[in-house]
Automatic annotation (TrEMBL):
One of its GO terms (cellular component) is endoplasmic reticulum membrane. InterPro entries: TMTC_O-mannosyltransferase, TPR-like_helical_dom_sf, TPR_rpt. The keyword Zinc does not apply. SUPFAM superfamilies: TPR-like. It comes from the Eukaryota. This is Uncharacterized protein.
Length: 126
């Protein structure tokens, strides 16, 4: 019931309300990879990229071979990189690269380098 409400709200374009219902669904079924993937997808759509990534990773712990979740995770990470690229600065001379004022060596390599599986964000059904 909660999942269906979330799905209907998302389809109607009420993403903020849908997020609350997807979160309820994920809390009710914390071991359901579909609930976690859909929570990740709505968080992703709502621009909450770190939370989306965490939700996708939880889903993949439960179902590592889920291609849709893998793809969505890669797209989420790419979006993080694109948003960081606005703040990427190269200081000439010493070759230091900064992201948001932090030296690149302080940024985890996984944050900077990704491969895409697909170029679309996919939402699943229960």
């Amino acid at each position: 019931m909660v999942f269906n409400s979330a799905h209907m709200l998302r389809q109607a374009g009420f993403n903020s309300a849908a997020e609350k219902y997807y979160e309820l669904a994920a809390n009710q079924r914390p071991n359901d990879p579909a609930a976690l993937m859909n929570l990740g997808a709505i968080l992703h759509l709502n621009g909450k990229l770190q939370q989306a990534e965490a939700s996708y990773l939880q889903a993949l712990q439960l179902k590592p071979d889920d291609v849709i979740t893998q793809s969505n995770l890669q797209l989420c990470r790419l979006k993080v990189i694109c948003s960081l690229s606005k703040f990427l600065h190269v200081k000439r001379g010493n070759g230091l690269i900064e992201v948001n004022g932090r030296p690149l060596e302080m940024i985890e390599p996984s944050t900077v380098q990704y491969k895409l599986l697909k170029s679309v964000l996919l939402l699943g059904k229960e």
